[in-house]
Amino acid sequence: MMRTPATRSSISRRPNINKAPSAKGFATAESSPLNLIPGAGNLHKKRWPFLLTAMLILTASARILIKTAAAETAKAAATLPLFTDVTREAGLDMKIIDGDGMTEYLTDVNGEGACFLDYNNDGYQDIFLANGSSRKSEAAGDLHHDYLLRNNGNGTFTDVTAQAHLGASGWHSGCAIGDFNNDGFADIYVTSLGPNLLYRNIGDGTFTEIGEAAGVADPHWRFPKWSMGAAFGDYDNDGRLDLYVANFVKFDPKHLPPKPGDVDACKLKEVPIACPPDSFEGEQGMLYHNNGNGTFTDVTKAAGLIRPAKSLGRGFGVVFADFNDDGLQDIYQVNDAGPNWFYVNNGDGTFSDASYESGLAVDGFGNSQGTMGVTVGDYNNDGLMDVYISNWIDQEKTLYENQGSHSFADVTMTRGLAQIAYQYCGWGTEFFDFDNDGWLDLWVSFGHTDPQVERSHPEDSFAEPNYLLQNRMGRKFVDVSQIVGLRNPNARSGRGAAFADFDNDGDIDVLVVNKNDVPTLFRNDGGNRNNWLTIRTEGVKSNRNGIGARISVSAQGIRRIFDVRSSESYLSGNDVRVHIGMADLKQADLIEVRWPSGQVDRYPNVPVDAFYLAREGQGFRKDPLVKLLNKVPLRR
Fold it and tell me: Does position 501 have pLDDT exceeding 70, yes or no?
């Protein structure tokens, strides 16, 4: 994520995009054929009309191009949805803490995540906010806590943290949602510097913390474990959700690194900062197998996931996904300041490390990056799951296109993403169809790591913007952030981001966690001008959430795929319901659900603009939980 001047940089070695192109790419003044023309006095008079005509044609062409671009922009502004900041009116006024005003140690840098979940099964997506701490607040006895916010179904939320028994304090990182005991209620896992927390949902609006008893709190290493991302997934398809936890670095509170103000402080652009991740050793990620009795077993070694000490990653994000359509969940862990790890599920309880041969360890130029966030989706509608990762400053944020057979190609440049937000630090990210046109777009939240750098380098603002990149039919991504209203709110230093249709109006809204600030809730206004479908899966033989199920939607000869997944982005979790943009189509000709158990259900001629429940082997119908939809009008 950050590097000192003395440390080998992981920044991409491809040519500096801020430099003028070389003569090989574009003609320079020295190589221009015009320089071969003799002086004006020696030109034949007959050549002047030709040159004048050429100049006029070029000028007219340029004007046409400018007018065309302006017209396209105006058309987009008139048709695209707007994202409205509804944070205050929704009642989200709590500040999420991560360190003090000036970052002293790495614990002050990374920020927190958030999760959407329907904890009380009323059909509306509620919010869980992980919260951190700071040395000053701890010294003053001011302990910050996590939050559970109940969705009231009218665009507002109520803080029910105390009633739900979820008000724990600590240096918490992020969250993951899954019904680990298949009782029909969403449980919450919270990662932390120190013991992680597993909250079992009792079903009456309260939770009980059972992390230690369940065996997923702490491996009790030599010094405190620091967990970041986590994800639930059924890697052995036994009908129970297992758990993967990405651990960060070996951070020993008893032997702290130098901090700003110390003689040997770490520096960025000659400014003293908190020492970066590559100042620390990496840590082992962990896979826990669900025993089906309320406990988990650490199977990291048995699954073949133990890494050599010198190749341990500084884990941030993790995602379960089926990358080769074999019905098995693979694991992709993204790491800061080093290569990322890709593990192929062998189907026998073990995994094979395919990080480098797959192309997912490094970028297309062979450079490792500082990766924070990760999202998975079929952006080009070819039936294969692709990957996008958000990286540190002065690094491309990389798009990997799935070529099949666990092989990926870096298509960042060819899809128009190489220079977008190159100078910013990326965190929360997601493939989602914000305008329901049938193509997955990209969201990325950005925020600098160290506020003190801005004091000496105003161009390196601590607050950085959110980006929305529209997918143009799988060929390229275009920045539409300004058009959809994301430049209107004041920029903050973003971290985690979570995605859900919180008002059940048929388009996806966005929640961004900001460092040492209140979160931002963006309501999607107008995404439902196009048609859509939303499907909630309920497993019978498979896990109750249906996590890992693959949904294919066929309409007018085009087949698209979607996976049921909760955890991705950065330290965050999304609405587990699968949202599908349908453009102007009136129905899906066929919806097919392939469950983790192997059961395949098919449902023909499904009308659009509705919420559905798919129950494994037992039919497809309107979702009975979504009964208050008429309280929130469709914004068409």
Answer: yes
